[in-house]
Amino acid sequence: MRLTIGMRCRFKSMKAKEHSWGEYADHEALLIKRTSGGDFSVMVLREGKNIELKKEDSKTVVNQVAWVDEDDLDFVNANFDTNLDFIDWYQENEEDFCGDCGEWFPNNGGINPVTGEDYLCPNEDCPGRLFDSGICPCCKAPEPIGSDICPKCDFDWKLQC
Description:
Elements: E1 8-11, H1 13-16, E2 28-34, E3 40-45, E4 61-68, E5 73-77, H2 80-93, H3 127-132
Antiparallel strand pairs: 1-2, 1-5, 2-3, 3-4
């Protein structure tokens, strides 16, 4: 069977390990775009089989990767109505997920009219929220005074990496 946009597939375990996206071996994926060379861009779903395509859930889509060869995928289903509905919804709402942690955050970039300040990501462990609050996103130690390096984990507050 030839694969096409809107189908759901699973990364072949042995083939996936040969690629940079090998960590997604056995994950399912939705086919979202086909290149002229026949490779696919895909939405990688969280680990497991027959994952429910939940909207507004930060754990449904774990990544997106490109240049996935058809031979690296096994067909799972051709439930086009469900799959394409989810793909369309996700692409329209992708900006409503936190860019730092992936949490559903429809107020992202907005100003709270009550406080006049930016809305905070609802995930209290969000690396961006921790950083903005003066807490190390790696080890949760307070931002050091008089230094740019976290004394606990060597996080560099200037480089942020």
